[in-house]
Fold this protein.
Amino acid sequence: SMFYTPQQVRKLVDVSGETLRYWRKTLTAVGGRRGYAPCFSAGDVLALKIVRLLVKGFGVNVKALEPTAQKLFDVCRSGGWGRLQGSTLMIRPDTGSVEVVLGRSVPIPGQPAWVIPVDGMISAFREALMSESDDIRGNGGGHHRDSPGEKGTKR
């Protein structure tokens, strides 16, 4: 299974380096991922995409995700995406539980919950990987990590 560098993760999740560093500091689930080496799994990237959706889409403070983050990352890391394809995650901030609901009919939770269909994310991620595959896989061949002009570029 492949691992991704923080730089690749930033691109795939679409966050700034500053944001990713802050999340790594704030969420113990990815706190151990240090430095520039390829240390993020595909499951980590999927979980970070969900974190991004909650933070940017729903305005959730990333600190508020800490109680559920470990469970979210565990779910995304376990058994690959095949197991999550076609599923919906139900994240309960009050209890810290993350439930995988298979199929299209999602039960209405008895308590407030974030309901996240992961199919679209997985497809988007797969497409990004296809178009990036030369970039990502061809990393070893003579590309310096800090190629000129790459450092201070803002998008």
